[in-house]
Amino acid sequence: MQTSDANNPAKEILKRDGLIPKRGSLVRPNLIDLSTYYTAALDDDWLVTAGANLQPLPKGVQTFVGVDFDVRGLIQLAGLNLYDESEMDEAEKKAYYPITVENIKVQQKGQKIHFLHASSWWANENEKIGEYVIHYENGEIKNIPILYLQSLRDWWTAPGDPTPKNAEVAWKGQNEATKAVGSNILIFKYTWLNPLPDTKINTIDFVSTMTTASPYLIAITIE
What we know:
The protein is mainly β and 223 residues long. The protein has helices at residues 80-85, 90-96, 176-181; strands spanning 40-41, 60-64, 67-71, 73-76, 100-108, 112-120, 128-136, 141-147, 156-157, 168-173, 184-193, 201-208, 214-222.
């Protein structure tokens, strides 16, 4: 999808034809395969501003804060500000920015789940902007709230901006859009301790609560 209009030269042209690299054949299964769930390529201007992308983020199996992640694309969920700012029609918004992505296949056990993620736009501190829903083989379900300035924050940051209290900065960089305004990109690693480490996790749902902030997910690693 591309935003362009020959009769409206002021409208930005958004690059949305980036390719998602194939998953390597030797990537370990605990680096969860998100291939069929991605909504955008890292090189895409997937939001509403030209040059606002993750093109500088290293791709493939990358180690951030001591954890390996399979970094190839992203899942961007919906949010109020994103819906307001997007020039897509309503049907396109719902297709390109889903409110939930369900049944992400895991099929393994682990003591920890590491999420590589951030948000587009901001929310109030401690506001729940989404959740990860963990479905176990025995039928149990655990909900992991995604809390603003606890689990993550907006990916665009300026010097002096606070960082999340319960997440670590996994990567810092700049794209064309942030360079123009003197800002940085931050991506975060949030780790959840699994209370049922001996029970297989079947699937994970990624859910937006439709606040002003829109969470996005790059990778999941089970440890």
